[in-house]
Design brief:
Layout lengths: L1 H7 L1 H6 L1 E5 L13 H4 L4 H10 L7 H11 L3 E7 L25 H11 L3 E7 L22 H6 L3 H17 L6 E5 L12 H11 L4 E2 L41 E6 L16 H13 L2 E7 L9 H17 L17 E6 L2 E6 L7 E3 L9 E2 L6 E2 L1 E2 L14 E3 L13
Parallel strand pairs: 1-2, 1-7, 2-3, 3-4, 4-5, 6-7
Antiparallel strand pairs: 8-9, 10-14, 11-12, 13-14
Helix pairs in contact: 5-6, 5-11, 8-9, 10-11
The structure holds 4-nitrophenyl 6-deoxy-alpha-L-galactopyranoside.
């Protein structure tokens, strides 16, 4: 089982960098994708957004170009978020883009545009559904993670929701060609694992799309020595990079992907000024790879269908860095070395990449690598760098066995525009 997962994720573990896209009706109120729950908005009060949804500037070819330019190798779109609204033309509901002024299957256009750029396709699908009448949180406007009486009373109809949910997953995995990732979100309390009929669901998914990857949010114990069949192919830490990477109970590395917002929200938020810088994104990507993980970086397009300018700007700057330095990211993993004082290592085969985040004016010290460095080069321009063992090294017990590499001028990631 574990071996299956390892080989299934081979491509995923090479790609390292993906685009997460949170988009739906909530782009109109523009206060994030949880707005319905946070502000206790009823179905009726939310309905005007359905009637108004008209993303006249939706052009997923532009999105795909932005992802491609940034060096992102796969993209995951919210086909349905917790509000239950479907961007695809589901036959199982009327609550879909086709019935809004948008008037068409927005998922299909996404798939076609990203596939044309050679970018892998992932579907985010919310297990939670605030709109479906058979979902326990229906109508009471209560945050579904809080216990409440209505929840208990409605539980007996949950079977119908499961049929709906399984049916929609079948639609998504039969109607759009080969799909690379199925990203479920999310389990909580007793709403986990078999409550979703997860084993049956995963069997169906694998019979439809044998090579697909599934995240770990259906429940189960991905870190167990013998994980459930639905426990997932990769771990999905959210808004953090796990400090020591992720290993299972046997100490074996698990595939993982940190999903992180570019500002402080997933869905479009008009009042969010906190867009992170290109340098922060690059450093975070490097950190993920240095710990055997991927970075799934989120964008939240607006109600017209455009990725915010500030996000596009960061993506293109990250792309400029990736163009020159992508070799230190794609196909790379953790180096079996302690974290250096000045930054991080990534590694591919016998090639070690030194990401210098922090330096003074002197050369960079490589502890323990005196006899292992054959030559050094600057990745960005290919120029050779001088390697030297310190003079009278034996006098400094703490630098024995190490070597210095001399960098020209102020070369470091400080040259990334922010
Ligand atoms: C979920 C969603 O609620 C959110 O809107 C967004 O889509 C995000 C990517 O995923 O949020 C979660 C899910 C799980 C945890 C935290 C937030 N968790 O397990 O800590």
């Amino acid at each position: 089982m574990v071996d299956d997962r390892w080989s299934r994720t081979a491509r995923f573990r090479q790609d390292r960098f993906g685009m997460f896209i949170h988009w739906g009706l909530y782009a109109i109120p523009a206060r994030g994708e949880w707005v319905r729950s946070h502000e206790r908005i009823s179905n009726e009060q939310y309905q005007p957004y359905f009637e108004a949804f008209n993303p006249v500037r939706y052009n997923p070819k532009e999105w795909a170009k932005a992802a491609k330019t940034a060096g992102q190798k796969y993209a995951i779109l919210t086909t349905k978020h917790h509000d239950g609204f479907c961007l695809f033309d589901s036959q199982l509901t009327d609550y879909k883009a086709t019935n809004t002024p948008a008037g068409r299957d927005l998922v299909r256009e996404f798939v076609e545009a990203f596939r044309a750029e050679g970018i892998g396709i992932g579907f985010y699908y919310s297990l939670i559904d605030w709109h479906h009448e058979d979902y326990p949180a229906y109508g009471d406007r209560i945050h579904p993670m809080r216990s409440n009486e209505a929840y208990k009373d409605k539980d007996h109809q949950f079977e119908r929701y499961l049929e709906y949910m399984h049916g929609q997953v079948r639609e998504l995995l039969t109607g759009y060609g080969k799909i690379d990732i199925m990203w479920f979100d999310f389990s909580y309390d007793e709403m986990t694992g078999e409550k979703w009929k997860a084993a049956e669901l995963v069997q169906m998914i694998r019979s439809l799309q044998p090579d697909i990857l599934i995240d770990n949010r259906l429940g189960g114990h991905i870190k167990a020595a013998e994980p459930e069949i639905y426990a997932g192919d990769f771990y999905s830490p959210e808004q953090i990079v796990p400090p020591g990477g992720v290993v299972n109970e046997l100490g074996e590395p698990l595939p993982w992907e940190a999903c992180i917002t570019l500002n402080d929200n997933w869905g479009y938020h008009a009042g969010d000024p906190h867009t992170k810088s290109a340098r922060q994104v690059v450093r975070t990507l490097v950190e993920c790879v240095s710990k055997n993980g991927n970075l799934l970086l989120n964008v939240g397009p607006d109600a017209k269908g455009e990725i915010p300018e500030a996000s596009l700007d960061v993506l293109s700057k990250v792309g400029r860095w990736m163009e020159r330095n992508g070799d230190s990211i794609y196909g790379c993993s953790a180096a079996n070395l302690p974290k250096p004082e000045w930054g991080r290592y990534t590694q591919r085969g016998s090639r070690l990449y030194a990401h210098v985040f922090d330096r003074g004016i002197g050369p960079i010290y490589f502890a323990g690598l005196k006899d292992r460095i054959r030559r050094a080069r600057l990745l960005a321009d290919g120029s050779e760098l001088q390697v030297s063992v310190p003079w009278m090294a034996e006098q400094y017990s703490d630098i024995e066995g190490g070597a210095f590499i001399h960098l020209p001028g102020a070369e470091s990631d400080e040259d990334i525009d922010t």
